[in-house]
Amino acid sequence: MSQDTLFKIEKSDISTAELIAHFREKCKICGHHRIMHDETGKCEGVMNKPCTSGCDSFESE
User: Fold this and answer.
1) CB atoms < 10 A from the CB of 56, how many?
2) Higher model confidence: residue 20 or residue 1?
3) In this structure, are residues 42 and 26 in contact, taking their beta carbons and an 8 Å threshold?
4) Average pLDDT over every residue of 48-54
5) Within its chain, how far is the Cα of 33 from the centroid?
6) C-alpha separations of 17 from 14, 20, 24, 38, 53 in Å
7) What is the pLDDT of residue 26?
8) Cα 48–Cα 18–Cα 28 angle in degrees, nearest 5
């Protein structure tokens, strides 16, 4: 993690535990974790495999 990113996290008053909990949420549509979804909500899959569920938005479980 870059110092710039670390600074942004510290400045935001969000703990690392909160960030981890946020990104561990799974999508109801495709079942992949939030971290696999890009900024538009499209799932990019896991381990270099594309998601074939047709998921184009994140809906938390």
Assistant:
1) 13
2) 20
3) no
4) 78
5) 6
6) 8, 5, 10, 21, 29
7) 93
8) 50
CA distances from 4 to 8, 12, 16 (A): 6, 12, 15
C-beta of residue 36 within 8 angstroms of C-beta of residue 46: yes
Q: What is the helix, strand, coil percentage profile of the chain, to 5? A: 35, 15, 50
Task: Scan for tokens 């990019």, then name that residue.
Answer: 44
- Residues 58/34, Cβ–Cβ less than 8 Å: yes
Q: How far apart are CA 35 and CA 20, in angstroms?
A: 10
Residue tagged 């479980």 (tokens): 61
d(CA 59, CA 50): 18
Tokens of 54: 């047709």
